Amino acid sequence: MIDILRSEWTKIRSVRSTVWTLAVTALLMLGIGALIGAAAKGSTEEPIPGEQAVMLGLTGTMFASLSMATLGVLVISSEYRTGGIRTSLMAVPKRLRLLTGKIVVFTAVALVVCTVASAASLAVALAITQPPSLDMGAVVKAAVGGGLYLTACGLFGLGLGTLVRHTPGAIVTAIALMLVLPQLTSALPGQWGDTVSDYFTTNAGQQIVLPRADNPLGPWSGLGVYLAWVAAAMIAGAVLLRRRDA
């Protein structure tokens, strides 16, 4: 297994798209957090509460989540596009071990980068908004939550990439499931519609970074629901990885 992890680490750090996508994720977090923070600071003469300032610092997660999902898709779909997946499967005939290696390496890289990006975005936003009081425990929790959420988005993309195998198709599917459909579920009628909306992919997952008061899920339970969606995509992809020809 160590050899598989070493091989996947070499792949992920030697591909330019990985570096660029991670850089875009960090820039989206920093840039949007700074812009929203500056806009909020300039729109009022009243001091911005610490809790609101923390939320402003993480507003970039909506766009950064898409870049992480794209990276997750590329981790495996790029091998199908180039035919490199055949070489990988010849070296590692046990396909689930290969997928596990990709998951472990991607999770480690994404978690480190996304947590640092979240912390930097919060630092910039807090420096701009200058709240009168601040709970440092809440700041640390927000930074860790941002890292976990963005990593989960990347794993969702990896699962969809394994399932679909086609890069544009997997990215479009990720955008639909993470951005478009979560908004549309809010229009569903009745109590069942509210339940579907609350538990639908990123509507649940974002509770750990940008919690909505009308969503009954807490930060960790919301992340748990989102991880269940991620696991479903990953399991479906793993099943088809074993059954389909490369």
Q: What features would you highlight for this structure?
A:
single chain; 246 residues; mainly alpha; globular
Task: Draw up the topology in text.
Blueprint: H1 2-14, H2 16-42, H3 50-57, H4 61-82, H5 84-91, H6 95-129, H7 136-164, H8 167-184, H9 190-198, H10 201-205, H11 219-243
Describe the structure.
With 246 residues, this protein is mainly alpha-helical. 81% of the residues lie in helices and 0% in strands. Helix 2 (16-42) runs antiparallel to helix 4 (61-82), helix 2 (16-42) runs parallel beside helix 6 (95-129) and helix 4 packs parallel to helix 7 (136-164). It is globular, with a radius of gyration of 19 Å. It starts with a helix and ends with a helix. The mean pLDDT is 86.
Level of helix content?
A: over 70%
Question: What is the typical, i.e. mean, pLDDT?
Answer: 86
Radius of gyration (Å) = 19 Å
Query: Could you say which structural class the secondary elements and strand pairing correspond to?
Result: mainly alpha
What fraction strand?
A: under 5%
Q: How many H/I helical runs? A: 11
Number of strands: 0
Shape assignment? globular
Q: What ranges have pLDDT less than 50 throughout 5 or more consecutive residues?
A: none
Task: Write the element-wise H/E pattern from the N-terminal end onward.
Answer: HHHHHHHHHHH
Instruction: Describe the sheet with the most strands.
Output: none
> Distance between termini?
21 Å
